[in-house]
Amino acid sequence: MMFRRLFFSILALTLQLFLQPVAAQMVTAQQESQDSTINVIAYFCKNDTLGYDFQHVKMKIVDNDTTVNYYYNSEFQLIVRDSTSQGYKIEMKPISNHCEMPEDTLMAQVFEKIANSMGDVPLVFTTDEYGTIQHAENWREVRDFTRKLSKSMTDSLYALKPELAKAIDRQRLEASLNLQFANEKAILDGYEELRILFGLYGKSYRIGKSEEDVMNPSGYPQHLKFVVSYGKTSEDDGFEDDYFVNCLSEVTIPAKDVVNLTTDRMNMMYNHEMTDEERQKFEKEIDEDAKVSIIEGYDYFYNGWPCDMLYEKVTDLKNVRNVEVYRIQWTTRSWGIFGGGEALDAGVSL
User: Fold this and answer.
1) Could you give the CA distance from residue 136 to residue 115 in angstroms, rounded to a whole number?
2) Which end of the chain is more exposed for a tag (fewer CB within 10 A), N or C?
3) Helix, strand, coil shares of the chain as percentages rounded to 5?
4) 3-state DSSP assignment of residue 264
């Protein structure tokens, strides 16, 4: 899991208009037992084991011509190691990972070579009784592993692309990467999978369709549309009490802010400050607002286990559309009956 996060941080040397999942931000915990609301709560049992397939895709569309810049796929398991009245201890166990970069196949090969040679490390984390993540128990182990990985990644990157040293100081880059994984919070933030899978636990959503206009955490006006309801996640493998939370978010970022965000990023990563002449040239190129749309879909089984999760971000700037998609789908499940009883669906596969 950390491979993709670290590797993408190294390669992301230009502006990334990133917005956090909206559905997890907009509703506070209520835990109300009302027919008009759905409470997202984890009813897990010790030894529950769910297998998942994770895909992360980045593509660019210019004049209806689509280019896939990055594709990452991994498989992992979530295993409940302990269940108490205060919450759960869960292990996130990596199974496999695969990376493709059509425009840089050599770096993709390096990625897989290092991943296969160094392996990966599981993450053990705890949640409260609702399923909200609280702590990463072995974050120091993950941090130390990531530092070794960072060294191998930067060694390979600068060996393959020596010209990079003229633009980006290696020590500055390594220091920036290490800061991203310096403490427990940073480690947890590095797992997009967990943010998508566990971000809604402990929250309550009103059933039906709704719309609202809010200010997002970055201070921009944001229009939201929610659709929340019960329904089988699938006809073959779902249950009557399954449920879903869907959200569409739309926000406009002024052109001047796009320029500022981009130049700040470039000044931080590159060896020289952007000159006034360079900035003016950049301002002429970025003379339109950026429009960002986020589509989120969260499907849960009746017991709160994630079933099918989607996060899609579309950024439109001038005639260029950048699309980023995260998709997490269950592949296997073995779970018990909350509160006691025999296991259900042992070994069921999608």
Assistant:
1) 22
2) C
3) 30, 40, 30
4) helix
Which residues, 6 or more positions from 226, have their beta carbon under 8 angstroms from its beta carbon?
23, 205, 206, 209, 210, 211, 245, 246, 247
Structure token digits, residue 20: 């956090």
C-beta of residue 261 within 8 angstroms of C-beta of residue 269 = no
Number of neighbouring beta carbons within 10 Å of residue 286: 18
Token pair belonging to 149: 């990985």
b vs e for 307-316, b when ≥16 Cβ sit within 10 Å of the residue's Cβ? bbbbbbbbbb
Rounded Cα gap, residues 181 and 199, in angstroms? 20
pLDDT tens digits, residue range 227-271?
Answer: 999 999 999 999 999 999 999 999 998 888 877 777 776 666 555
pLDDT at 106 (0 to 100)? 64
Percent of the chain with pLDDT over 70: 78
Pair of tokens at residue 89: 């201890």
Give the pair of three-digit tokens for residue 90: 């869960």
- Asked whether the beta carbons of 338 and 45 are under 8 A apart, the reply is yes
pLDDT, tens only, 190-237: 899 999 999 999 999 999 999 999 988 888 899 999 999 999 999 999
DSSP conformation class of 274: P
- The 10s digit of each residue's pLDDT in 10-32 is 433 333 444 567 777 665 444 44
13 three-state secondary structure: coil
Name all contacts of 109-118 with Cβ < 8 Å and 24+ positions apart: 110/156, 110/157, 110/160, 111/3, 111/7, 114/3, 114/149, 114/152, 114/153, 114/156, 115/3, 118/148, 118/149, 118/152
How confident is the model over 272-331, as pLDDT tens digits? 566 777 777 767 777 788 899 999 999 999 999 999 999 999 999 888 899 999 999 999
Q: Which of 209, 164, 156, 203 is nearest to 24 (CA)?
A: 203
**Tokens at residue 216, please?**
């997002």
From the CB of residue 54, how many other CB atoms can be counted at a distance below 10 Å?
Answer: 21
